[in-house]
Amino acid sequence: MSLTANLMKTGDAKDGAGSEFLAFTLGSEEYGIDILKVQEIRGYEAVTRIANAPEFIKGVINLRGIIIPVVDMRIKFNLGTPTYDQFTVVIILNIGGRIMGMVVDSVSDVTTLSPDQIKPAPEMGSAFNSDYMIGLGTIDERMLILVDIDKLMSSGEMGLIDKMAA
């Protein structure tokens, strides 16, 4: 997949001139997460559902002999009913040594943002908890909602994932 090759060559992009984010979509919005947390990107495949798990935890998959939990971010962020098509992908994350999958509608690219392109997260009284936002990344007319994936995936309800994977 060309995106994977692109991910690998971005490490030498700009010597610390900014932070690199993997851009992905959920519904009509574009989000970004720290590229250093991304282990790989895979096409969506059926998951094994776990009884009594919260709805946003789709289930688990076997990744080369490791059972990893998969979270559907559209359900997690309350963005309507997810659809799974040829663009749907699972981003495999490594967060503090914990491997997990995150289902998103699609991924687009890796973007380098300089500190002056990242604006503070606005206070929003919506379903999206701004505690999980780093800020908003702006590139010309494009805007990325930058997600603090460490904080999101280590929140209290995500602790359920640890229990499921055990």
Structural account:
By secondary structure, the chain is mainly beta. It has one domain: CheA-289, Domain 4 (OB fold (Dihydrolipoamide Acetyltransferase, E2P)). Helices cover 14% and strands 43% of the residues. The chain is built from four helices and eleven strands. The strands form two sheets. A six-stranded mixed beta sheet has the order 8-1-2-11-10-9, covered by helices on one side. A five-stranded mixed beta sheet has the order 3-6-7-5-4. A hairpin with a 2-residue loop joins β10 and β11. The longest helix has 8 residues. The radius of gyration is 16 Å and the shape is globular.
Structural class: mainly beta
Instruction: Please bin the fraction of helical residues.
Output: 10-25%
**Fraction of residues in β-strands:** 35-45%
SSE run: HEEEEEHEEEEEEHH
Distance between the termini: 32 Å
Give a brief rundown of this model.
This protein has 166 residues and is mainly beta.
Main features:
single chain, 166 residues, mainly beta, OB fold (Dihydrolipoamide Acetyltransferase, E2P), 6-stranded mixed beta sheet, 5-stranded mixed beta sheet, 4 helices, disordered N terminus, Chemotaxis protein CheW, chemotaxis, CheW, CheW-lke_dom
